[in-house]
What does this fold into?
Amino acid sequence: MVSLRELTREELILPGNASCAGCTTNLSIKLALKALGQKTIFVVPACCTSVLQGVFPLNSLNIPVLNISFASAAAAASGVVAGLRVQGIDDVTVVGWAGDGGTVDIGIQALSGAAERGTDFIYVCYDNEAYGNTGMQRSGSTPMGAWTTTTPKGKTEQKKDMPLIMAAHKIPYIATLSPSYPTDFIEKFQKAKGIKGTKYLHILIPCPPGWRTDPAVSIELGRLAVQTGAWTLFEIERGTLSISAPSRPFLDKANRKPVQAYLEKQGRFRHLTQQETSQIQTRIDETSEHYSKVNQTRLCP
Amino acid sequence: MTLTIVDSGSHVAGLAAQAARAEVVAAYPITPQTAIVELIAELVSSGKMRSEYICVESEHSAMAASVGASACGARTFTATSSHGLAYMHEMLHWASGARLPIVMAVVNRTIGPPWNILPDLSDSISQRDTGWLQFYCASHQEILDTIIQAYKICESSKVLLPAMVCFEGFILSHTSMPFTIPDQEKLDSFLPRFKPGWKLDVDNPMAHGTLSSSDYFMELRYLIQEAMDNARELIPAVDKEYAETFKLPYHGGLLEETFCDNAEILVISMGTIGSEARVAIEKLRNKGYRAGSVRIRSFRPFPIEEIKKVCERADAIAVIDRAISFGMEGQLSTEIQRALYDVKDRPLVLNFIAGIGGRDVTAKDIEEMATHTAKCARDGKIDQKLTWHGLRT
It folds into this structure.
């Protein structure tokens, strides 16, 4: 198991950048780059990271970054992978680093294509569950019930299950992550770096301005998401699902906190009725039960 | 070894990418471009072309992947047509804004609906303002030479812009003609490896395309205009150098002139209408008309001064457009008139829309347009500014 004390002290993302107070994307980049090291190229479509990098001539990332159009992270990354390979460069990790809109909505075609081609890269979806840069509009990754500026009464549809969509692509490694669990987070990035082919990492990103939360509780919210089962940490390695250590205790309903504990801290769920909250609870219970059943089994033939 | 072979226009484009030693090709199939990507796939899989070939899932991704590869410093090639080019539109801006010298073959095909796979230039001309150089070819040899020359021009530190090498689908893509591929060793010294001034490099990390404010953005756009001006000077120079180095015909640089010296009537066109026009002009000369033909090779950058020079002694000009800007006229016609605005005693300009959606434009058609233009010159006035030639009524 990785020890935070043994991690490099080198920072590849500098403080004082343009991210919001309590932003867990910023923290995720910091942790990811500690795991991946300096020989990493980021390909970033339109998302919060296009802003928090800094406005030219300021730049907070000390790795090469290719900024690219909204739909194109995975496709442009495919080009970078090919461009490096044709020049004999084989020690660089290429990372597509995209938000949920750039992944589950506008970027899904390019991602699906890159995964089907077995492109040797890590694709990261950092998911704050809405279009944050543009002021919190609904995305395909917004959870049921959540307020956004385009779902003023709460979203009536379910969150798209992107990790399982990626599992259907039969790529070698998929994982869900939370920066509230940094050792699990870093281990997953390190593991992804060591595997050839397409790796898909999906991070839940508490977002103070979008979720209408106190910037001081972002880490706590990430933990509550796991402790309530609203977000389950797992890996799918060569098709086999295994629930990660931080989430394992919470597969058991007896250990799971009621989802109310997670929802009540967020302004985006303030409007929920008791009935709606219990519907969300029921869905979480069903999902956790399902994960218990499929844990350590092959999801796809 | 110099090689003269007979093959299709599509294969010429693929062979040109091979001869230029394109290192990454990202492409998506579309009629009538398909034979280009099929040939490249064949060349790469048989080891005859040492490239990474990415079979992307759309044209938008084809150009995104091309941007990624070119940003790494790899020489990058792609090809498309019609709806595929339209689908790329956003990424075309990205490639030029990022100053990446990607070269793309555009096999011209009209845009639906209704569905139609036949040629006109509406696909590429509607991408006129994307910051790409645009060349239009009239022969197989010219396709080959222009693709190779385009890399030399675009990779120059004075230019650093992408280029489309356009040629009409079926008329050129699916017909066979003889052409000569220069000796590879000589080609390699004419077109050495691409060495960009900056690239995605972990030893020299930079943010590419980072958010910028109005403090810098306008200057960055100005630099693209300046690069286009530089390209305008480089295009004839590279065409000449190429012709001399490989003992191949000079294509005329920015534009090809035929019998223009003492011409009273000029026909101006692009692509294969330009080669058909040469035939028409010879016939007209035999009938006593002092007629000439100008075929625009470089639509972007546009040869403003060259057009002024060749047109200022003419009495009347027939501009033939194989495309139209609805609500205005043919785009080439507008450009020509802009170039002539500053000319004293400027000639009359008539605009003919022809060959839309693949309709044939024969030498006879061009003769008709030119003789009508000659009549207007004699009368000293234009009866009809814009004519859809051969329109069924």
About this structure: The CA atoms of residues 281 and 292 of chain B lie 6 Å apart. The first helix of chain B runs from residue 9 to 19.
